Amino acid sequence: MLIIAGFIILLFYRISKIKYKHRMMIIKYIIISLVISLVSLWFLQKEIFLHNGLDGTIGTDAYRYWVILKYAVTYKLSIKEFNDYIIFLGYPNIKFFFIFEYLVLITSVIKTPVILKICNIVLVQNIIVLVYLYIRSIDINLNKKYIKFILLLICTNGGLILTSIRVFKDIILLYILFESLYSLQIFFKKRSVIALITYFILAYFSNYIRPKSIYIYLFIFLVQIIIIKFSIMKSKKLKQKLVGILFIILISCIALYRIPFISELLNKTQEIAINDATNEISEGYGGYLSENTYILNNNNIFFRFGIGTLRTIFFPTPFKTLFTPVGYNVSFFEGITGRVLELMWQFVYPVSLIIFIYYILFYFSENDYKYIPYILFCLIQVLTYSFMYFGGAQLRWKLPYIILFIIFWGKCNQYFNRKDKILIFMINIVYFLGTYLWGVSYLL
């Protein structure tokens, strides 16, 4: 329990540094998040054991990860022995994830997947506080009621809760992302060397959870320097704004092209996508059979990329979840608990997406430019999953940008007028009708 206790202490330390009025608000939303998460965990674990056990996991990658961790705990491997074992099994690129989870287990009295899930839940509470601190570091004058709205949507987000009660690496990655973004803000505001060191340490660790991600963090650091240090985006003249935006886009394209991970994906897209889609078809995975068969018959890489981008950004929708029977996914078990949590975020996600796009097009201002590194991180993730698997429709991959959309949803409340709200409502009606028809055809 030492690792979990450490994160709890860090959580309380950060809360203690927040002003009293906001501190009580944060505590209230953390309690809400904890209650929902722990109740969901109890119901999901009960369903898993009633279904088939799977050692307390939902199956798929979570089960494979747990089997490796269980072996290490059973034979009491040292950290070095465990590291060698991970490399032997062919997982050197995500060894930090395994070592972190292993440390959680060996420092706990109860060595079960439930402990790892509780650790994830504690990390989520830290993420909530970090999101608050990150917003305040950029928008110090943002009204308290809008912050309340943002925190409420995050702490009740079904996708975040469902991911936390599975044994996956996505919660750790999300924590690293917000810890890094906040550290970067602190560095540029206070010239804190500790914050800068923290940023690069986290970037290094992320590289051994998601391969090559250190290049993305270096890219974000460069963009932050361009925005803040050189103040390119602060001009009020439209032409200079456009020049600044085009310059950042140019730098982004060059950086993306030079990142080895992206280059590998560009060179091996068809091979990777075909192999993964073929595996999904052979396993009958997730109802993607008709979609992947349809896409595999088209050899145009741009067509595949286009479909992948649509899937990554706009899907899945609640209609597929509603139409698919519980247990239809043969590769993992989600249960009724997982289905309810999926629906909780799937009805919120499209609305937040439409509002985000609308805000960027019509209300994006000088005060919002400090969010560009975060936006670019999400853009890189969208591009990555658009090349892989013909797009990433899994909710756990969308966590970074659903939180981004929610932040801007909260910000928009201080700008949108009645006309804007009616227009957004109509766009959402069209969106839901369109995805309903797509959902019926099982092409999601």
Automatic annotation (TrEMBL):
Q: Which terms are listed as keywords in the entry?
A: Membrane, Transmembrane, Transmembrane helix
Segments spanning the bilayer are: 26-44, 85-108, 114-134, 146-165, 171-188, 193-209, 215-233, 242-259, 343-364, 371-391, 397-416, 423-443
**Is this entry keyworded Transmembrane helix?**
yes
Name the record gives this protein: Glycosyltransferase RgtA/B/C/D-like domain-containing protein
